[in-house]
Amino acid sequence: MPEHGTVFAYLCNMKQRIVVGISGGVDSGVAAWLLKQQGYDVVGLFMRNWHDTTGLISAECSYEDDVLFAEMVAKKIGIPFHQVDLSEQYRERVVNYLFREYEAGRTPNPDVLCNREIKFDAFVEEALKLGAEKVATGHYARVDSVNTASGSVFRLMGGLDKNKDQSYFLCQLSQKQLGYAMFPLGEITKPEVRDIAREQGLANAERKDSQGICFVGKVDLPVFLQQKLAAKKGHIIEISKKFEIPDNGRDYRLSSKSIELTPEMGNQIGEHQGAHFYTIGQRKGLNIGGKEEPLFILDTDVINNIIYVGQGQDHPLLFKKALLVRSEEVHWIRPDLSLMPGESRECFARIRYRQGLQKARVICESEGIYLLFDEPQRAVVRGQFAVWHYDDELIGSGPIN
Questions:
Q1: Is residue 46 part of a domain?
Q2: Is the pLDDT of residue 238 over 50?
Q3: Comparing 150 with 321, which gets the higher pLDDT?
Q4: Is residue 244 assigned to a domain?
Q5: For a FRET experiment, which of 10, 235, 263, 328 has its CA 20 to 30 Å from that of 129?
């Protein structure tokens, strides 16, 4: 009988079949072990989502290694192991989206889309074929339900390990998707996960976490994008730190807009191979030296194929006080807490993974949701997802305009 939980809970859990997305990494392996210890009928399902090796820097996320580790862990735990190929859905719904966003001068987050479109959609469909009642992953997040005036709703909460909280990557899930979701690691820390893996002799106990694009791996981004986006030379324009930024005060509409830069505002200092290969705040890849401070990308113009750069990570054009998520792209995880035009509320927000939660006000207008921050935010990137929380609960999200 397992140590975790009561005998009653163990016997109740035995009735439920949980399909775990087992990837070969330590997190999903320990998630599966925990569920097995809690008495659930656990099945491991490995998904293959990518076949192409174009642009790969290393084989850290190679399919052969991943499936080998996943199968060894499933055998060690003592659960059935299955595989499914979702590469067509992944290319159509995640990778093609990535190409479209870069071409439009936006920087997408494929991990967020992978969770919405693949792990908690296409993968869930496959899990249901195996008799799943719930689907579990190795995310560091929590989900529960509460009763409201309009009925029971699911809440998405941050993981207790603040260094690994991955609720950001789940910010586009719907109430229906959260209804299937289980996150066994939400209550424990990464060091504890490693300890469990070592204690249980799991083959992936010391395996490094995957990096790069979800299910693709660590890539040379320009090489990867050149599958669809052609390289083309353009000018790099440097904008002085003395550039005067208008003070918009608390005017969130004006503060959310980027200043329209033109070549006449600075000096040409080099050439690049395509503005769509770069993103705001980026430092590497310009290959320009001889400056007093490092150069950072301030903005990109994909229509005219121009990159604007400035010296120093404190360049004033790197900071914005507010941002806009357009109304058609706003996603409320808690529809019962959504705002109507003219309404606003204090919140905590972040504009990228691993950023600490920032004090802000979420403001609803007809054109969309504005986030007005107490402090200016560095490198607000078009296409990345902004999320807003009420206390520890993730309430809504959307791509930055």
A1: yes
A2: yes
A3: 321
A4: yes
A5: 10
